[in-house]
Amino acid sequence: MTFGGRHFVIASAMSLVLLGPQPVFAGVQAKFGLDSPASGPFPSDRFTIADPSQNTQRRVDLPIPDCAVRQSDCEDLAVINTLDGFHIEPRLSIPFDGPIDVTTVTSESVSLIGLDGRQPDCHEGIRDCEEDERDNDRRVIGINQVVWDALTNTLHVQVDELLDQHTRYALIVTRGVRDEFGDRVEASEAFRRFRETVQDEYKHALLDAIHVARRIGVQERDVVTASVFTTQTVTSILEKIRDQIKAATPEPADFHLGPGGSPTVFALDSVAGITWDQQRGNDPRTFTRVTVDLPSLRIIPGAVGTIAFGKYTSPDYEVHPGEFIPPIGTRTGTPVVQGTNEIYFNLFLPSGPRPGIHEMYSTDLRPGGSAWFGMVW
User: Fold this and answer.
1) Is 17 inside a domain boundary?
2) For the whole prediction, is pTM greater than 0.85?
3) Who's near 133: CB < 8 A, 6+ residues apart?
4) Which has more confidence, 230 or 11?
5) 171, part of any domain
6) Same domain membership, residue 246 and residue 194
7) Are residues 54 and 89 both part of a single domain?
8) Of 230, 253, 270, which marks where a domain is finished?
9) d(CA 74, CA 65)
10) SS3 string of the chain?
11) Which of 239, 302, 345, 368 has the most crowded CB, counting CB atoms within 10 A?
12) 77 and 193, same domain (yes or no)
């Protein structure tokens, strides 16, 4: 009787297990959080703000940590948050909620797609975005340097080429990525419902990404997570400085560097030798004496007629100490001259009539130093 009771209890317990709700064994999912850069695919324009002074109309706005604890991070982020976009050779980070098989991470399963240069407003319900339309000219960029962080279950990859400046890109991750058991990685509930949960303009950016991916053959059901980010403007400040210098009228070069302001322009035939003291150290100052090979200037008789030593004043846009150019808006900002430097140079002039100078080049233009100038005429 006792034995039967035990049997009855075991059978009843087994019946309860079998009749209860069946557990759901979900596979590994790609995360899609928007609260912090580590909670979803990054870079992301989610962590930017509008800024009409920038070429991209945006400015990076990454969260600042506790500066009392992470002072160096705060200093770095203060600089990054002045930029109008992300790096043109970014490291892409994609977090998952479990381990993946990194051998399945390829340029087919993780890639970037250029978004700019196409017709805008390709959103839900607009008929100019046909389901079967293809954009074969869309620029797709692959990846390399795959790194898996097992502690945080985060995938890091490098883009396979330099990206264009001030341009939007979509990071697309597909079901081609598999977990360590060979099963396809899945989209999270947050990503599947981003149309309802993401309310700002970033939702429209994600819709652009989904539609462009579809137009190159990647169906939305195969996308497990995505982000949209804008690259920074790289050349704007240098272009503005170049234009300022070209528009200015500089003072003439000074060729009176000798004792008492005597001229430092010499006919080659009157020069017996030239020695050049190259500074090699600063504390204490040390120099290396170099003898200039004069015979090489006479290989073609009469080609070089005059040697001149001069200097000119050059604007300096860098702040010292620190050696940096203060950040400005890449669209509306104006670089400010912070000071000047005296640039010393050595010049070789041809003999005969005054030539028309087509090109000048230098081997060294360090502020306060001496530069060898050559001429092409």
Assistant:
1) no
2) no
3) 215
4) 230
5) yes
6) no
7) yes
8) 230
9) 7
10) CHHHHHHHHHHHHHHHHHHCCCCCCCCCEECCCCCCHHHCCECCHHHEEECCCCCCCEEECCCCCCCCCCHHHHHHHHHHCCCCCECCCCEEEEEECCCECHHHCCCCCEEEEECCCCCCCCCCCCCCCCCCCCCCCCCEECEEEEEEECCCCEEEEEECCCCCCCCEEEEEEECCCEECCCCECEECHHHHCHHHHCCCHHHHHHHHHHHHHHHCCCCHHHEEEEEEEEECCCCHHHHHHHHHHHHCCCCCCECCCCHHHCCCEEEHHHCCCCEEEEEEEECCEEEEEEECCHHHHHCCCCCEEEEEEEEEEEEECCECCCCECCCCCCCCCCCCCCEEEEEEEEEEEECCCCCCCCEEEECCCCCCCEEEEEEEC
11) 345
12) yes
In contact, 230 and 167? CB cutoff 8 Å? yes
Count of structural domains, the chain: 2
CATH number, domain of 100, equals 2.60.40.1220
Q: Distance (Å, rounded) from C-alpha 245 to C-alpha 236?
A: 14
CA 345 to chain centroid, in Å, comes to: 35
pLDDT at 7 over 90: no
Strand arrangement of the beta sheet that strand 154-159 belongs to: 91-95, 154-159, 143-149
Same domain, residue pair 208 and 77: yes
Encoding tokens for residue 346? Answer: 């050595």
Look at the block and give the residue holding tokens 């003999």.
351
Is 125 in the same domain as 188?
Answer: yes
Does residue 242 sit in the same domain as residue 222? no
d(CA 245, CA 340): 13
Residue 134's contacts (CB-CB under 8 Å, 6 or more residues apart) are 215, 216, 217
Domain annotation covers residue 23: no
- Condensed to tens digits (0 to 9), the pLDDT of residues 244-262 reads 999 999 999 999 999 999 9
How many whole angstroms separate alpha carbon 8 and alpha carbon 13? 9
For residue range 178-211, list pLDDT tens digits in order: 999 999 999 999 999 999 999 889 999 999 999 9
Domain that holds residue 93: 29-230
Per-residue pLDDT tens over the stretch 305-325: 999 999 999 999 999 999 999
Whether 214 and 338 map to the same domain: the answer is no
Shared domain check, 246 and 219:
no
